[in-house]
């Protein structure tokens, strides 16, 4: 008996089903059977995860975030979610595809609207907007209706929906209006009848900060911690049959690099050091030869945060989908350098994300707001900062402005109404992280189309090569640009050279038979040579070489003076000390570090092999406090730092980035306490001397700091402190408001650094009321403590009464404490409280 099948609804349709969290294997299996039962054809994924797009008519996916999405759209392939199949079966014919698209820009794609008692003009506007943004409209109420647009619930359609228990939402037309103004779909709840929140509450009334699920794992371009335990790494299918290149500009240690590489290889992937062999390229900056080659070749290019996201979720996502998953522009976005930006009404990951986005744009982020701030980015029109900004004429915008400025690589106009629209009972943090890059913008600015002609046109190739030769090379300029080894022009020159090499043979330069050795100038490095005759070089090139030689000879006296100065000894600045410092800075700076295939010796002769130099990758970022070995001996300090860097140890001043902390004992210094919050490996300062003396990095555990007297004094174990610090992740004092008097001993800046290193909120208290019952910038509920750190000066004691009164009015518990409270809390890495911390007289 022939197998029974349904109507051939999907005849002549060829489907690809994209697995994801929203479309699991069990669903795919069921859909495959259904489609085949109705004459559809299914194509399988290739081993590399791709589909043969030339054969496919429909792709079923719950997300637009899959590798072939852009190519499929360019080929006009229908991309729909699985609800399209259900609707087609219900209609007994193929349903329209547009309402079922996973395109995130079509914000009403799964909306089926039915209008009730709204005026005809408003009705037409709402229906038109829904249809334009991917939704559908129905005049009759059905089970497929998702939204009823109404002014009250008195209309028969609304009553029918309530009586029948339909799942559709009855919303005011204001919801559609606000969604369109923002270009984002916001929560319907404040607009839901019969008792909409926008009519019941005031815009400034308290509103909880929403979770920021969209930016989990994408709030920072450089994650502080590795996402998985390295003890028992799991297998990662996301790297199967993929070749990954990890750029040196990520500046990660060799141990972490090995862990990552082992995970990739363990997941049937591979590692390469050549971008030409890569399927994935991971780097930090949008610059350099490898970045441009990878981007032009449409290789997936992302940063370390994106790589960690792949490892964490074991699922592919485009690095263009999240703004901080893509490499950063060095120097930020033009114009942002003049901006001082602060935030209000964003919390948790959203706040961290926006702070990092401000810095990635090149602006200055400030936690507090002063009159010299230029912009306030806020999620709603309600906060002390918002009130002050209106009085001080500071620009007030929502986060869409900075997201789209970063995505479009230029400052967006503040007059766009989308950036100043704030729905009355919505915290816009709920739509944060939905802005994506437009690859066309990135291409036009950072890796424009290679001007080299196609290899299909050999005549054009030859003409192009000849034009290269005929250019009158300004050798002095070329020497300066190439020997500096940090110019973008050099990178683009090498990219073009690499591409031409891959398209046609390059003839080797032939000696001209001169009696003396000739200098090989950088101008010659960047020149293309015709695929024809080797000696077919115009006379202008000869002239350029002569000019290059003349330029180098003209610099000979300066070079000789520099070498002589380097040899001069003595304690004063200059001589050997200055030269060593300059050389060290040049070799360690990312902006000036030579690429291996760009390095030239000043007197390199033609045909001589280039020497590869450079510093080893940084394995340890060391912060030092209390070390006396360099006291009054700046020359030894410079020399030792250079030796340490040659071993892969970089001395840092920023506690956020340190991996190791060196100290003679457990000290309550600002450096020690700030660095401790990062959970570093804490070593004795003997570790420094051992590295310098032996010329190698010893096992840090052999130099672990041991300080029994202070452990007894503080009633703490150092190893327990570090464990707690790692668990706290610099968030020990998160959401804890801490204030300090202006006249505190050692100054407010010391305590500010310690508080902020532990994730707290810090301000100087000068007697002016600063607390409100509802604090929009913090997610505080109920009576929580608020701290004032103080000394015993009369000017400080005068502030106590006002602080206590203001705190109680704000429904908070005032705690006026000595500096010991903060120092003990930071040292122990746990909340410590007892009455003994209260200031005398409290």
TrEMBL record:
Comp. bias (Polar residues): 473-486, 512-521
GO cellular component term, pick one: nucleus
Bias type Basic and acidic residues, positions: 456-472
Pfam family, one: RTT107_BRCT_5
Stored SUPFAM superfamilies: BRCT domain
Organism superkingdom: Eukaryota
Region Disordered, residue ranges: 204-231, 445-548, 567-602
BRCT domain boundaries: 5-102, 103-193, 336-408
Compositionally biased intervals (Acidic residues): 487-497
A GO BP annotation: DNA double-strand break attachment to nuclear envelope
Regions of compositional bias (Basic residues) in chain numbering: 502-511
The protein's name in its UniProt record: BRCT domain-containing protein
């Amino acid at each position: 008996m022939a197998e029974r099948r349904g109507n051939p609804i999907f005849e002549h349709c060829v489907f690809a089903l994209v697995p994801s969290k929203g479309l699991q294997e069990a669903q795919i299996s069921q859909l495959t059977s259904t489609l085949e039962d109705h004459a559809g054809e299914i194509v399988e994924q290739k081993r590399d995860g791709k589909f043969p797009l030339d054969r496919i008519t429909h792709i079923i996916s719950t997300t637009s975030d899959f590798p072939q999405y852009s190519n499929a759209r360019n080929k006009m392939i229908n991309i729909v979610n699985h609800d399209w199949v259900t609707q087609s079966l219900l209609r007994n014919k193929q349903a329209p595809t547009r309402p079922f698209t996973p395109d995130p820009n079509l914000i009403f794609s799964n909306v089926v609207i039915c209008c009730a008692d709204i005026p005809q003009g408003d009705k037409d506007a709402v229906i038109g907007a829904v249809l334009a943004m991917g939704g559908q409209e129905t005049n009759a109420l059905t089970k497929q209706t998702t939204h009823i647009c109404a002014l009250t619930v008195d209309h028969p359609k609304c009553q029918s929906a309530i009586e029948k228990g339909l799942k559709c939402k009855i919303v005011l037309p204001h919801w559609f209006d606000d969604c369109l103004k923002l270009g984002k779909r916001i929560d319907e709840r404040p607009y839901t009848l019969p008792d909409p929140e926008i009519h019941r509450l005031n815009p400034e009334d308290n509103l909880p900060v929403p979770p920021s699920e969209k930016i989990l794992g994408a709030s920072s371009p450089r994650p502080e911690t590795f996402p998985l335990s390295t003890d028992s790494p799991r297998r990662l299918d996301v790297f199967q049959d993929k070749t990954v290149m990890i750029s040196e500009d990520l500046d990660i240690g060799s141990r972490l690099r090995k862990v990552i590489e082992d995970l990739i290889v363990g997941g049937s992937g591979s590692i390469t050091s050549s971008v030409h062999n890569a399927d994935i390229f991971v780097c930090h900056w949008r610059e350099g030869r490898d970045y441009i080659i990878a981007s032009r070749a449409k290789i997936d290019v992302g940063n370390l945060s994106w790589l960690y996201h792949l490892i964490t979720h074991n699922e592919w996502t485009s690095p263009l989908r999240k703004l901080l998953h893509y490499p950063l522009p060095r120097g930020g976005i033009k114009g942002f350098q003049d901006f001082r930006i602060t935030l209000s009404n964003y919390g948790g990951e959203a706040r961290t994300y926006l702070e990092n986005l401000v810095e990635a744009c090149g602006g200055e982020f400030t936690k507090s707001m002063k009159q010299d701030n230029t912009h306030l980015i806020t999620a709603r029109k309600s906060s002390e900062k918002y009130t002050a900004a209106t009085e001080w004429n500071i620009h007030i915008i929502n986060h869409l402005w900075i997201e789209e400025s970063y995505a479009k690589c230029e400052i967006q106009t503040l007059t766009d109404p989308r950036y100043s629209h704030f729905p009355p009972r919505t915290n816009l943090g709920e739509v944060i992280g939905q802005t994506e890059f437009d690859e066309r913008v990135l291409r036009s600015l950072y890796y424009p189309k290679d001007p080299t002609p196609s290899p299909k046109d050999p005549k054009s190739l030859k003409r192009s090569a000849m034009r290269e030769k005929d250019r009158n090379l300004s050798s002095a300029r070329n020497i300066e640009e190439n020997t500096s080894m940090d110019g973008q022009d050099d990178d683009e020159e090498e990219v073009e050279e690499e591409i031409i090499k891959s398209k046609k043979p390059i003839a080797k330069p032939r000696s001209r038979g001169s009696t003396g050795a000739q200098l090989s100038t950088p101008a010659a490095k960047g020149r293309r040579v015709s695929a024809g005759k080797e000696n077919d070089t115009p006379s202008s090139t000869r002239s350029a070489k002569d000019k290059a030689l003349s330029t180098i000879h003209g610099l000979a006296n300066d070079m000789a003076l520099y070498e002589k100065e380097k040899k001069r000894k003595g304690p004063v600045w200059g001589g050997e000390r200055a030269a060593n410092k300059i050389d060290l800075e040049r070799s360690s700076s990312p902006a000036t570090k030579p690429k291996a295939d760009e390095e030239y010796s000043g007197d390199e002769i033609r045909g001589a092999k280039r020497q590869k130099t450079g510093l080893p990758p940084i394995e340890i970022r060391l912060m030092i406090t209390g070390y006396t070995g360099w006291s009054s001996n700046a020359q030894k300090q410079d020399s030792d730092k250079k030796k340490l860097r040659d071993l892969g140890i970089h001395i840092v001043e920023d506690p956020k980035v340190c991996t190791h902390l060196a100290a003679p004992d457990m000290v309550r210094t600002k450096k020690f306490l700030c660095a401790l919050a990062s959970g570093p490996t804490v070593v004795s300062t003997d570790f420094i001397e051992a590295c310098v003396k032996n010329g190698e990095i010893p096992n840090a555990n052999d130099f672990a700091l041991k300080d029994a007297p202070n452990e007894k004094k503080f009633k703490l174990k150092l190893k327990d402190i570090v464990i707690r610090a790692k668990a706290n992740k610099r968030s020990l004092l998160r959401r804890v408001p801490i204030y300090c008097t202006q006249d505190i001993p050692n100054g407010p800046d010391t305590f500010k650094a310690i508080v902020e290193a532990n994730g707290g909120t810090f301000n100087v208290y000068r007697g002016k009321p600063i607390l409100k019952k509802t604090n929009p910038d913090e997610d505080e509920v109920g009576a929580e403590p608020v701290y004032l750190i103080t000394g015993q000066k009369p000017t400080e004691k005068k502030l106590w009464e006002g602080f206590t009164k203001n705190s109680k009015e704000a429904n908070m518990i005032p705690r006026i404490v000595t500096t010991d409270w903060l120092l003990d809390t930071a040292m122990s890495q746990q909340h410590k409280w007892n009455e003994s911390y209260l200031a005398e007289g409290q």
